[in-house]
TrEMBL record:
PANTHER family: TRICARBOXYLIC TRANSPORT PROTEIN (PTHR35342). It holds the Pfam family TctA. The keyword Methyltransferase does not apply. InterPro entries: DUF112_TM (IPR002823). This is DUF112 domain-containing protein. Coiled coil: none annotated. Residues 15-435 form the DUF112 domain. The chain crosses the membrane at residues 6-31, 105-131, 137-157, 164-181, 193-211, 249-267, 311-330, 351-372, 384-401, 408-441, 461-483. The lineage of its organism: Bacteria, Bacillati, Bacillota, Clostridia, Lachnospirales. The keyword Magnesium does not apply.
C-alpha cells in the first residue's frame, strides 16, 4: 500500500502542486513572523472541495517546507523564522559572520532532510504496531489517554502551569458549546441557532493562528532586515568530515527529536533546544558552542525535523496530535469525513500511507529546492511580507464562510482572533486550548461510555492498569513543578 501511494504521487499534476507547496512552505518558514503552521491553516479551508489525496499532499508539502525553511533567516540574519530554529541561531549566525555562510546553510539543509526523511521511515513502521495495541484498549484507557495528553501539554507549556491549565479548561468549555454527543441536550447556546452545531474548528484555527498572527505583526510594524551576501556557492559546502565528526550528535539529536515529537503538544519548538543542550553538555569542547560550532547546527536542525515523524505517530495511530500543525492535519481528516484513531489505518490505509509518502517526497523536493535556491535566500528575506496581510485576511474570511456557509462563522473567526491576541497579551499558551478543543468531544464521549459500560462504577478508570498509568502520568505532570523545588531544597539542606 505504501509503494502504491508513493507511485500515486508521481503524476505530473501532483508533482507540480507539491513543488509549489514546498516552495510556499519554505517562504513562510524563512520569513520571521510567518511559519509553516500559518501556511497550513490558510490551506485548510481551501481543501474542502478537493480530493482527499490532493488535499493532504498539499498540506504535508507546505508543512515540511515550513519546518525546514526556518533555518534560513536564523543563519543569514540571526533571526529564527520559527520557534523550531531558535537554537540554530546560536551557531549558524556566528558561522555566517565569519564567512562560512555556505557551509552553515549546507549543514542546515542536510540536517533538515535527514531528520525529516528518516523520522518518517520510523513512523511508517511504528504506527501500525501502536494502532494494533490501541485497538485492544477500551473507553477507560482512551479517556485517560486524552486526559493525559491535555494535561501534559498544559503542564509543559511555557510560563505558569496555571496558565496552561486555564487554556486547557477554556478549550474544554468552548468544546461543550452546542449539542451534547450522547443525550442531545443543548449547552451554552443562549438561544442562538447558529451555536446549536457547536463552534467551528476551522474558525478557531484561522482566528487563533492566522488572523491573530497578522494582527500582532501589524502592531509591531515592518522591521528592516540587514543586507546579506552569501558569496560564491559551490555544492552544499559541506565536507564528509563535517558528517563523520558529528555523527554522534546527529544520532542523539535525531532520537531526541523523534521522542519529543511523539509527546503530545511538544513538537519541534522544544526538541531543538533540548537537543542543542544535550549536544553542548556531551561535547569535549562545550565552550565552542555559541561561537560557530557546526555540531550545534546539526543538533538543532536534525532534531526539529525529526519531530515531524515523531508527531505523525500519535496522530495516525491514536488520533492525538503531536503538535500544533498535526492538530491542523487532524482537523483536516475530520473535515474530510475521516475518523482519526487506531481504525484509520485499517479503514483508510490509502490516506495514512499517502501522508507518509508525501512527507518523504516533500523532504526530497525541499532538499533540491534549497540546494538550487541558496543564492536566492537573501532576496527571500527582503520580501515585504506585510503586503500579504490583505491576502491572508481575505483567504481566512472565505475559508470561514465556506466551512459553514454562514456569515456568523466569519464573526466567530474575528472573536477567536481577539481571543488569540488576549492570550498573547497575558502570556497564556494557545496549544492547550487547541488540543483540548479537538479532544474535548472524545474525552466526554469516552468518559460517559466508560461509566455506562461499568454500570455507574467510576473505579474502573483506576482499576485498569493502562488507564491508571495514564492518569498517574497526568497527575505527575501537574505536581512535578512543585516537587522539584522541594527536593532541591532538601538536597541543599
Amino acid at each position: 500500500m505504501f509503494f502504491t501511494q508513493m507511485i500515486a504521487l508521481f503524476n505530473p499534476l501532483m508533482i507540480l502542486i507539491m513543488l509549489v507547496c514546498t516552495i510556499v512552505g519554505i517562504v513562510f518558514g524563512a520569513i520571521p513572523g510567518l511559519s509553516g503552521g500559518l501556511a497550513v491553516s490558510l490551506l485548510l479551508p481551501l481543501t474542502f472541495g478537493m480530493d482527499d489525496l490532493l488535499s493532504f499532499a498539499m498540506m504535508i508539502a507546505v508543512w515540511v517546507g515550513g519546518i525546514s525553511g526556518g533555518f534560513i533567516s536564523a543563519t543569514l540574519v540571526g533571526i529564527p523564522g520559527a520557534p523550531a530554529s531558535i537554537a540554530t541561531c546560536f551557531d549558524a549566525y556566528p558561522m555566517s559572520q565569519r564567512g562560512e555562510t555556505v557551509r552553515a546553510l549546507g549543514i542546515g539543509i542536510l540536517a533538515s532532510f535527514a531528520g525529516t526523511f528518516l523520522s518518517c521511515i520510523v513512523a511508517t513502521f511504528l504506527s501500525p504496531f501502536i494502532a494494533d495495541f490501541a485497538m485492544k484498549l477500551g473507553p477507560w484507557e482512551y479517556f485517560s489517554l486524552c486526559f493525559c495528553a491535555i494535561t501534559l501539554v498544559a503542564a509543559l507549556s511555557k510560563g505558569s502551569i496555571f496558565k496552561g491549565l486555564f487554556a486547557a479548561f477554556l478549550g474544554l468549555f468552548l468544546c461543550c458549546v452546542g449539542v451534547a454527543p450522547l443525550d442531545g441536550a443543548y449547552r451554552f447556546t443562549f438561544g442562538n441557532i447558529y451555536l446549536g452545531g457547536g463552534l467551528d474548528m476551522v474558525a478557531l484555527m484561522l482566528g487563533v493562528y492566522a488572523i491573530k498572527q497578522v494582527a500582532c505583526d501589524y502592531a509591531k510594524g515592518q522591521q528592516e532586515l540587514p543586507d546579506v551576501n552569501v558569496g560564491k556557492i559551490s555544492g552544499f559546502g559541506v565536507k564528509i568530515t563535517d558528517i563523520t565528526q558529528n555523527i554522534g550528535i546527529i544520532l542523539k539529536s535525531f532520537f531526541i527529536g523523534l521522542w519529543i515529537g511523539f509527546l503530545p503538544g511538544m513538537g519541534s519548538g522544544l526538541s531543538n533546544m533540548v537537543a542543542y543542550a544535550q549536544a553542548q553538555s556531551g561535547s569535549k569542547h562545550p565552550e565552542t558552542f555559541g561561537k560557530g560550532e557546526p555540531g550545534g547546527i546539526w543538533a538543532s536542525e536534525c532534531s526539529n525535523n525529526a519531530s515531524v515523524g515523531g508527531a505523525l505517530i500519535p496522530m495516525i495511530a491514536l488520533g492525538i496530535p503531536g503538535d500544533a500543525v498535526t492538530a491542523l492535519l487532524l482537523s483536516g481528516l475530520m473535515i474530510h469525513g475521516l475518523q482519526p484513531g487506531p481504525l484509520l489505518i485499517s479503514s483508510n490505509p490509502q490516506i495514512v500511507y499517502l501522508i507518509f509518502a508525501a512527507v518523504m517526497v516533500s523532504a526530497v523536493f525541499v532538499l533540491v529546492e534549497q540546494f538550487f535556491g541558496m543564492r536566492w535566500f537573501p532576496m527571500l528575506l527582503k520580501l515585504p511580507y506585510h503586503y500579504l496581510y490583505g491576502v491572508i485576511l481575505v483567504m481566512c474570511f472565505i475559508g470561514a464562510f465556506t466551512s459553514t456557509n454562514t456569515t456568523f462563522n466569519v464573526l466567530c473567526v474575528l472573536a477567536f482572533a481577539a481571543l488569540g491576541v488576549m492570550l498573547d497579551v497575558f502570556k497564556i499558551p494557545a496549544s492547550p486550548l487547541i488540543l483540548s478543543f479537538i479532544l474535548g468531544g472524545k474525552l466526554e464521549e469516552y468518559f460517559r461510555k466508560g461509566v455506562s459500560y461499568s454500570k455507574g462504577d467510576y473505579s474502573s478508570f483506576i482499576t485498569r492498569p493502562v488507564s491508571l498509568l495514564f492518569l498517574l502520568v497526568a497527575v505527575f505532570c501537574v505536581v512535578s513543578p512543585y516537587i522539584k523545588p522541594l527536593l532541591q531544597k532538601k538536597r541543599t539542606a
